[in-house]
Specification:
- The protein is 40% helix and 20% strand.
- With 342 residues, the chain is of the alpha/beta class.
- The protein has 2 domains: 4-227, NAD(P)-binding Rossmann-like Domain (Rossmann fold, 3-Layer(aba) Sandwich); 235-336, Dihydrodipicolinate Reductase, domain 2 (2-Layer Sandwich), CATH 3.30.360.10.
- It has a 6-stranded parallel β-sheet with strand order 3-2-1-4-5-6, with helices on both faces. The protein has a 4-stranded mixed β-sheet with strand order 8-7-9-10, covered by helices on one side.
- The two termini are 32 Å apart.
Length: 342
């Protein structure tokens, strides 16, 4: 099997650390493959890339480390410390392939956390994107990789302003040349760098990433795939599953009210009104896509520092179970939050 690189945006975040550590412990068969959909009976005959053929690197704007993030998460999740010890050297080795990234358009919280000792955001946009591309290409060359997949696990950004820079590739590149840092977002620059480097792009966040028309045009031009808009691992996951239940039981949803409280860096970043808007858009868009109509929906999100890595969510659903009889459903949810913080 060929060697493949996984270039992670937000590589020092908890989601990134958990994913990389998970790949390492699975490669050495230290844990059972619980929770891996690749292990489903329907996929048993598919030849997937082995974990030991994955090479990890990435961009981040903080001076943390993959091992430190995984150790912090492990304390909250009560992960056996022996696992950390088993793969600590391999997690430390990832740092050799971590490069400073960009926080352009990421919001005030992320900008404050960014390591200013190497401030690439003071460079013109064309130089920033060139550096991002060079980092990815150097990683591929260093490890003699068949391909590199860029995965965005960074903190949620405010949604971009819509204009020529989002509608066409020409408009996007004119914004780059004009150094319009007020118009572009880091996730868009990472997607641009990935496509220009011939790399697929996976967006696990609610940020714009490759979802704008301009970058879809670029992906098509370079014939590289892209996918994703929010991983939907918490309240939205439950909402997606339950919406199908109401649809196929022919129960009309009248209202769906949700409320989320969370700690961690994810919660702190989502405390910014502009950034919160990106998350609320993805949460609200799920229901009409599944149900085929727009019920009343509202999602509340609040930052509670003392919750640490925990997230708590409530959902109240009002639906018609017969033509004239509405029924209410109250669903409390509790989640360990592995945030994608940069």
């Amino acid at each position: 099997m060929p060697k493949v690189g996984i270039w992670v945006i937000g590589v020092h975040g908890s989601v990134a650390a958990a994913s990389i550590a998970g790949a390492k412990v699975n490669a050495r068969r230290l844990v059972a493959p619980t929770g891996l959909i690749t292990e489903l009976p329907e996929l048993r005959d598919v030849r997937f890339l082995p974990f030991d053929q994955m090479f990890f690197g990435g961009h981040d704007v903080t001076n943390g480390s993959v091992r430190k993030s995984f150790a912090n998460l492990s304390e909250v999740a009560h992960i056996d410390r022996k696992l950390i010890e088993e793969v600590s050297d391999e997690l430390d080795a990832v740092e050799e392939d971590v490069r400073i990234g960009t926080a352009i358009g990421c919001g005030k919280i992320v900008s404050k956390l960014a390591d200013k000792s190497v401030d690439i955001d003071s460079l013109p946009l064309v130089d920033i994107t060139k550096k991002l591309m060079d980092d990815i290409r150097d990683f591929k060359k260093k490890h003699n990789l068949w391909s590199v997949i860029v995965v965005n696990l960074s903190s949620t950004e405010p949604p971009p302003l819509i204009g020529a820079h989002t509608e066409t590739l020409d408009g996007f590149e004119r914004a780059l040349q004009s150094d319009r840092k007020d118009l572009l977002r880091a996730s868009m620059l990472y997607a641009y760098a990935a496509f220009k480097s011939g790399c697929p792009f996976i967006n696990f966040t609610p940020s714009a990433g490759a979802s704008i028309l301009a970058l879809m045009e670029l992906a098509k031009k370079h014939q590289v795939p892209y996918v994703g808009n929010d991983g939907k691992t918490g309240e939205t996951l439950i909402k997606s599953v339950l919406a199908l239940l109401f649809k196929f039981r022919a129960m009309k949803v009248l209202s769906w009210q949700g409320y989320n409280i969370l700690g961690n860096m994810d919660g702190k970043v989502l405390g910014e009104p502009e950034t919160k808007l990106s998350k609320k858009v993805t949460k609200d868009s799920v229901l009409p896509q599944i149900l085929g109509y727009q019920p009343h929906t509202r999602v509340g999100i609040d930052y509670v520092p003392s919750l640490g890595d925990w997230k708590i969510a409530w959902d109240f659903i009002l639906a018609l179970i017969t033509k004239h009889n509405p029924a209410g459903f109250f669903l409390p949810e509790f989640w360990l939050l592995a945030s994608a913080d940069t």
